[in-house]
Amino acid sequence: MKNRVKYCDALKAMSIVLVILIHVFAIYRDIYFNSNKLYYTIISYGDSFTRVAVPIFFMITGAFMLGKKPEKSYKEYLFKRIPKLVIPLIIFSVIYYIYESYKSSQSLSILRFFQEVTTYGGVKYHFWFMYEMIRIYLLIPFISVLAKSLKRKELKNLIILIFIMGNLINMAQLFSWKYGLNLFYGVSLSSFAICINYLLLGYYLYKYNIKEKTRKKIYILGIISILLIPVFDLLYNDSIRSDISYVITSIFPILPSIATFILFKNKYANLRVPDRLEKIITTTSTNSLYIYMIHVIILEYVNKYLALLIPQDRFIHNIILIPITLIITFILSYIGAIIFDYFYKKIAKTLTKLLRCNRYIKRRKIYEES
What we know:
There is one protein chain. The protein is mostly helical and 370 residues long. The chain has helices at 6-32, 37-48, 53-65, 74-81, 83-103, 110-117, 128-149, 152-178, 191-207, 212-236, 254-267, 275-286, 288-309, 315-369. It contains 14 helices and no strands. Helix 7 (128-149) packs across helix 9 (191-207).
């Protein structure tokens, strides 16, 4: 396809696979959290390698959207961009609401649905990303002006400052509470500001090249960060699993995310990716939003039926089940996303024709009456 940045497509395709793997790992980490800390830690180390996924989605959004030529007006921008997020969110919210109501044997209620869909996080736990993206897209034209106006050093300093005021202070605050202190209360920036910072970071890394010597240091620091995630996870958790060292507000995912981005940017072109695989990567990238939305419901069914075939009572069984669950869930989600995209485009195209036809009839009528 023309005008596609191949390494960004590969990053998005990899990231959506890793997002599914995050949710697969969560199932098995929960199994061993209170029963076997060694097995829990082993699986947690696998999970720590996946945590570049969500930051990279934000970074790629920043890479493309912040440097993009702006639309003629903010109104035009909203009509062009926001429906692409809001309409799928509403459709999948309805699907998941019916699914969750069926699971819990609750009767359907329009009021309860409206309450859930208008609450941050929505109907299902992974919908938080969609709410965050909608808020971000509303602000992108203004963030873009800021990013473009800053020189390279100024932009880098802003990214570092937000990281310190957001990620670093947030982690310090949470750990102070853990050990009976009350430090930095209300000081840290919000998770929303941290998400915006990942946009700025993606724009920075896309626009500017990093020296090879600096890249090597980032790779090493990225690996160290990944290795530290489960350590701090064990230090923080007691009786309830809380992934504060894994999430985007943590200090740890940022360096591995930078390392992964610049690795793909500088090395992906050297790989001789077969055309057929490149096509799958591109299709996965373009449908990553729908794969993201649909994969949780598929994962729950896949896990349910695989558990009947291979009991989750032995560690070796679960180590085997993790990649099997990932592969089946991804394939079914990939197929489901393509089917959804096909019908969504068909319906959208039909509605567009009807609207144009209706406008033409109205104009014709006005012309005939005048």
